[in-house]
Every structure is written in C-alpha cells, then in structure tokens.
Amino acid sequence: AQSVTQPDIHITVSEGASLELRCNYSYGATPYLFWYVQSPGQGLQLLLKYFSGDTLVQGIKGFEAEFKRSQSSFNLRKPSVHWSDAAEYFCAVGTRANNLFFGTGTRLTVIP
Amino acid sequence: DAGVIQSPRHEVTEMGQEVTLRCKPISGHDYLFWYRQTMMRGLELLIYFNNNVPIDDSGMPEDRFSAKMPNASFSTLKIQPSEPRDSAVYFCASSVRLLRGLETQYFGPGTRLLVL
Fold first, then answer.
1. What per-residue confidence (pLDDT) applies to A41?
2. What are the tens digits of pLDDT across the range A36-92?
3. Residue B103 in contact with residue B3, Cβ under 8 Å?
4. Which residue of A44, A45, A88, A107 is the best one to mutate when testing the B interface, meaning the one whose CB has the most B CBs within 10 A?
5. Cα separation, B25 vs A96, whole angstroms
6. Closest by Cβ to B102, choosing from A90, A96, A101
7. Do A99 and B100 touch (CB under 8 A)?
8. Over the range A31-57, which residues count as b (16 or more CB within 10 Å of their CB) and which as e?
9. DSSP per-residue codes, B10-24
10. Could you say which DSSP state residue B28 is in?
C-alpha cells in the first residue's frame, strides 16, 4: 500500500538559513511525487512535482526537491529561507488511479 | 482562471443540522476530489469523481456523508445529520488526466466547518 512519511512535525530555522524537509514514500510502482505548501487559513498550493526524468526538480519560490529511488525519498530544499516561507508543507505520492496520499505535514517556523 | 471555488468559506452549525458544501472545479478539469483535514488525521481523501461519476468513495466516513456532481462545473458534499466530530476543513480539488496518467491537483481555499 502507498504511504508517505514526513518524520519532522515541526522545524524552526533562522531567516537566511538553508532548509531541508524530509519525505519518504512507499509505493510499489514508479511514484508521482508532489510537494504542497499551506499557509495559515489557506488552501494547498503546489510547489513542485516529479513524474519522471531529471531527479532534481525545481519549483516555485526557490524550492527544489530531489528524488532518490534507492532511499525512497523526495526531500524538499531551499538554500535561503525567507520569513514568508513559514507555513505547513505536505509531501504527497500520486497513484495511476489519480489518487493523492499525503504525509502528515511539517510545520516550518522562521525566526527573524 | 479563477481556480477552484468553494463555498461557504466558513460554516458554523449545530449538531443534527444538515450541512452542504459546494465546489466549482477549474473549467476543463475532469477529475474532482473532496478532502477533509483535521489535526488528528491530517488530509484524507473522501471521494473523487471522473467525468461527474463517483469513482472511489471508500474514504467517506459513514452514511451521513454524501457527495454529488450533477454536472462538470458543480459538486456538493452533504453531511446529514452533522456531528461535532465532523468539524474540520473540507477541501475540494480538481485535475485533468493527461496521457501520462496523472496531473496536478489544484486545491480550493477550503470550507472551515464547526459543528457545535
């Protein structure tokens, strides 16, 4: 069965510091992988996605993620965090049936 | 493009009342999804439609929940009767299927439901 694990419930970083949010997935076939961001009181916005090809994927707002099949991971990174990046981040795996399975999310706090 | 539209944005009701949540997907999208988000269970898929037909409703918690999609531009999620444990944020999302099999889901702003 498919599942997504985000081991970090809450992360705090200083503004300007680098960021890495972890995501591990379990899926029997080639995964479709997504990162979404949710600001307080808002819906989910797509940051980036991986379907195939280059394993390093660039997204919006300066985010990138790397797909590592051997580690079943799809970690999200940003070299320099801005205060506006404070939000909740969700990793998701998509199936061929068009379902999305979400992780439990990682809440990011940015310290000035 | 206006994106996925949901109404109402907030709903407060009393236990036992009927609640109807509404969703307008992005024009041209043939998949529509209903999700529920709670602190305890995170984001859960309740049901999804393809070309207005329900494909998988295994996530619907119980018979009190029902969803319809009478046409390509409108869907409802109804709870009757509502209970306090139904309090959550309900999201609607839509997507279009491409030849490669999957496309991005675009989410609406959600309906925040509080059942007293």
1. 80
2. 999 988 889 999 999 888 899 999 999 999 999 999 999 999 999 999 999 999 999
3. no
4. A44
5. 21
6. A96
7. no
8. bbbbbbbbeeeebbebbbbbbeeeeeb
9. EEEE-TT--EEEEEE
10. T
